[in-house]
UniProtKB/TrEMBL annotation:
Protein's UniProt keywords contain Oxidoreductase: no
Matches recorded under InterPro entries: ANF_lig-bd_rcpt (IPR001828), GABAb_receptor_plant_PBP1 (IPR044440), Ionotropic_Glu_rcpt (IPR015683), Peripla_BP_I (IPR028082)
Protein name in the entry: Glutamate receptor 2.7 like
Main location: membrane
PANTHER family according to UniProt: OS06G0188250 PROTEIN, OS09G0428600 PROTEIN
Receptor ligand binding region domain span: 69-410
A GO cellular component annotation in the UniProt record: membrane
One Pfam family of this chain: ANF_receptor
CDD domains: PBP1_GABAb_receptor_plant
The organism of origin for this protein: Actinidia chinensis var. chinensis (Chinese soft-hair kiwi)
Cell compartment(s), UniProt: Membrane
Length: 475
C-alpha cells in the first residue's frame, strides 16, 4: 500500500492527512531545521571556529594554477560546512617564476602567519626559500605536481616538503613500457624545467634506468626553460625543434611540461612536419591529465597520434560527480572564457585532498601545534579522497599508481589499456593475477561477515535465554 494515499479517498477537502505522510513531512521539516541550526551555529561562531590558516602559491595564469585555486577554495568551504570549523586560506600568485615563489612563501609565513603551504613549489624552490629565510625552513609545504627533484641533498635541506603524488619513477616506467612494447630502440627525451633555478635532468636518468632492461636507449635529450621565462616562446621552441629534426630523431618522449609549453611544442612540430607518419610522440601525465581542458580543434589539428600515460582515478563515484558539478559551476564563474573546458583534472582533486588533509590535521590539534607536529599529523593521514588513497611514505603518496594509456584520435583521445608497475599492461596480465586480488578481497570481506554473524548469533542466544528464562541445561 503506497503511503502517499489520502485517508478515505475522494475529495481532499476536509480529509485528514495519512499518518505516514504526516510522519514523513515532520521528519523532513526536522531535518531542514537541524541543517539550518547547524549552519546558523557556524555563522554565529565564525570568529571562534578558526582552526588555522594555510597559504597557496600558484601560477594563476596557468591551467593547473587556475584549477588549484578553485579546488582549494572549495575544500576550505566544504570543510567548514561539514565541521563548522573555519580554515583561513591565503593565495599568492607566483607568475611561474621561482623568485616570485620565494617571495610569496616568505610573505605568507611572516605576514599572514600561515601554518602550511600548498601549491606548485618545487624542491629546489623550497630549498632556496629555506636558505634565504630560516623562519620558513620548518613550514610544511605540500607540492601538487610530480617532480624528479626529490634527491637526498635536497631532502636534507627541505625535510618539510611533502609530495602530493607517487614517486615519479613510476611515470618513467610507464613510458619505458610503451617504448619497449612497440620496440622503438632510440628515443629523444624532451622536458621543460619546472623552475628557473635548476634543471630537471634527473628525469632523463630515471627514463634511462627504466629502459635498462630493454633494447631501447635515450639517444639524446632537449631541456627547455620554463615557458613563462621566454620572451618569444614560439621562436625558441621552433629553433630547438630544428636541431632535433637535423638529428633525424623520430620518437619523442615529453617527460615534463606545462600545458602552455606543450601546446606551443605541438603546434610548431605540426608546422615542421614532425607530426606526420613515421614520428612518435609520448606525453607525460601532466599533459595527458589536462587534455580534457584543451580545445578540440587544437587537438584535431596538432596532436593526432599522440600517446600518453594518464593517472587513473575513480570518476564514477557519487562524491566525484558532486565535486565535478560544483567545480564546473565555480570555474565557469571565475573563468567564463573557458566555459567549454571546465572539467577538473587530477591536479584539482589532489589540491582538494591536500587542503582537506591539512584542515583535518589542524582541527585535530585545535590550531595549537608546532610545525613538526603538524607535519607528523599530515604524514600519518590515511583516508580515501577524491584522487584516491591518501597516505604517505618517504614524503610522497604511498599508493602505487595505475595509468590509463591514451591515444589521440580525431578531436579527442581514446583509452587503449591500463598499465601498473605491479601487473604491466592489462592485456599482458595473467587473468589469475587479477582474480587472485579479487578473491583475496572477497575472502577478507566474507571473513568479516562471518565474525559479525557469529557475534550476532551469540548475542541473540544470550538475549533469548534471558527473555524466556530457559533453565541451564546442566541443571
Amino acid at each position: 500500500m503506497w503511503c502517499l494515499d489520502w485517508e478515505g479517498g475522494g475529495s481532499v477537502e476536509g480529509k485528514k492527512m495519512h499518518p505516514c505522510v504526516r510522519a514523513f513531512l515532520l521528519s523532513l521539516l526536522l531535518l531542514v531545521a537541524m541543517a539550518k541550526e547547524t549552519w546558523d551555529k557556524c555563522q554565529m561562531s565564525e570568529h571562534d571556529q578558526i582552526i588555522g590558516s594555510i597559504g597557496g602559491v600558484i601560477d594563476k595564469s596557468s591551467r593547473v594554477g587556475k584549477e588549484l585555486k578553485i579546488a582549494m577554495e572549495m575544500a576550505a568551504n566544504d570543510f567548514r560546512r561539514s565541521t563548522c570549523s573555519k580554515l583561513v586560506l591565503h593565495l599568492r600568485d607566483s607568475n611561474g617564476h621561482s623568485a616570485h615563489v620565494a617571495t610569496a612563501v616568505i610573505d605568507l609565513v611572516k605576514r599572514k602567519r600561515v601554518q602550511a603551504i600548498i601549491g606548485t613549489v618545487s624542491p629546489q624552490e623550497a630549498a632556496l626559500v629555506s636558505e634565504f629565510d630560516k623562519v620558513t625552513k620548518d613550514i610544511p609545504i605540500i607540492s601538487i605536481p610530480p617532480t624528479s627533484s626529490l634527491l637526498p641533498p635536497l631532502l636534507s635541506q627541505s625535510p618539510f616538503l611533502v609530495q602530493m603524488s607517487p614517486n615519479i619513477a613510476a611515470h618513467m616506467q610507464c613510458n619505458a613500457a610503451i617504448i619497449s612494447h612497440f620496440r622503438w630502440h632510440k628515443v629523444t627525451a624532451i622536458y621543460e624545467n619546472s623552475n628557473s633555478v635548476s634543471t630537471d635532468s634527473g628525469l632523463v636518468a630515471l627514463l634511462s634506468d627504466a629502459l635498462e632492461l630493454t633494447d631501447s636507449t635515450v639517444k639524446s635529450h632537449a631541456a627547455f626553460p620554463p615557458v613563462s621565462s621566454l620572451l618569444d616562446p614560439r621562436a625558441f621552441v621552433e629553433k630547438e625543434l630544428k636541431k632535433l629534426w637535423s638529428k633525424s630523431s623520430r620518437v619523442f618522449v615529453v617527460l615534463q611540461s606545462s600545458l602552455e609549453f606543450a601546446m606551443i611544442l605541438f603546434e610548431k612540430a605540426k608546422q615542421m612536419g614532425m607530426m606526420e607518419r613515421g614520428y612518435v610522440w609520448i606525453v607525460s601525465d601532466e599533459i595527458a591529465s589536462l587534455l580534457d581542458s584543451v580545445d578540440d580543434s587544437f587537438i584535431s589539428a596538432n596532436m593526432q597520434g599522440v600517446i600518453g600515460c594518464k593517472t587513473n582515478f575513480v570518476d564514477t563515484s557519487k562524491s566525484y560527480r558532486q565535486f565535478k558539478l560544483m567545480f564546473r559551476r565555480k570555474y565557469r564563474l571565475v573563468y567564463p572564457e573557458e566555459d567549454d573546458y571546465s572539467n577538473p583534472s587530477l591536479f584539482a582533486l589532489r589540491a582538494y585532498d591536500a587542503t582537506w588533509t591539512l584542515a583535518m590535521a589542524l582541527k585535530k590539534s585545535q590550531g595549537r601545534t608546532n610545525s613538526k607536529e603538524l607535519l607528523n599529523s599530515l604524514l600519518s593521514s590515511d583516508f580515501r579522497g577524491l584522487s584516491g588513497e591518501v597516505s604517505f611514505k618517504n614524503g610522497e603518496l604511498s599508493q602505487s599508481p595505475v595509468f590509463r594509456i591514451i591515444n589521440v584520435v580525431g578531436r579527442k583521445y581514446r583509452e587503449i589499456t591500463f598499465w601498473s608497475p605491479e601487473f604491466g599492461f592489462v592485456e599482458n596480465l595473467a587473468k589469475d593475477a587479477w582474480m587472485k586480488v579479487f578473491f583475496l578481497k572477497l575472502i577478507k570481506e566474507c571473513f568479516k561477515c562471518f565474525i559479525y554473524l557469529e557475534v550476532v548469533r551469540h548475542n541473540f542466544l544470550f538475549l533469548f535465554l534471558i527473555v524466556f528464562r530457559i533453565p541451564d541445561l546442566q541443571n
